[in-house]
Amino acid sequence: MPAANSSILNHMAQYSPTHFNASFAALADATRRGVLDQLARGDASITDLADKFEMTLTGMKKHVGVLELAGLVTTEKVGRVRTCRIGPCRLEEEMEWVARYRQVWDARFEALDGVIDELKRQEKARGRKKRK
Amino acid sequence: MVARKESESQRTTVQKKSEREVVVTRTFDAPARLVFEAWSKPELFKKWWVPRSMGMTLRSCELDVRVGGKYRLVFGEDPANAMAFFGEYLEVVPNKRIVWTNEESGDAGSVTTVTFEERDGKTLLVMSELYPTKEALDAAGTGAQDATHETFGQLDELLAELSAR
Asked: What is the ipTM metric for this complex?
């Protein structure tokens, strides 16, 4: 009973699911969301970010590493400074992927609600003689 | 337009459990036996599986919902562009659980498990689609019709029609 599943899975192929999970994990953390906000306003070095978010260089490196793995951030080392910028991962597409998947099932399930309501009505109409 | 209480619990959730598995949940305001009935009787199943908003036409729908039974769904405007989806029921526990294979894509086919859990007259439905490999999941459905052309106007119409009966 796969029909729409297949079409849905088309999107999975486009928006690789592994990648997708990585982005969500990356965004589960408030600091990392803050870092993304910050980088959306302009590139920054790890040191800048560590200062801004009042944490150690090591701590910030870890956060940036997670964001980098998810494709949300890219970094480039020039001399002793590692500069971070917003990465190639287009988050909107990923949000869209889940939204579409949900949309299909929502549509189906709303229609199913209609069918079930009808069954409930029929059952009620058949009255009390039914086993309760 | 049907006014439906959109309580949190009634919303559809979609979650990727792993790179091989997608899980969808939804709560229905009815006992499990009715939800199960709507999944296991072809004449009911075809009323909701392909809402018009999906832009697909269901040409035929045969479900033999028992262990070892087969199903076959055929889509398409005419026989020339018909697409068939078929498989076998591996487990059927009335009012509780249905498991089936999806065989139209050969070895890459997924196994779908639907469970119905009744609580206080409502039913929590959990549907899982498990692929044999990550690659199978990634590749699934290539070339199938794009389901994104949702027209919610049409859906509203369908629901109004269903509820007016």
From this structure: 0.74
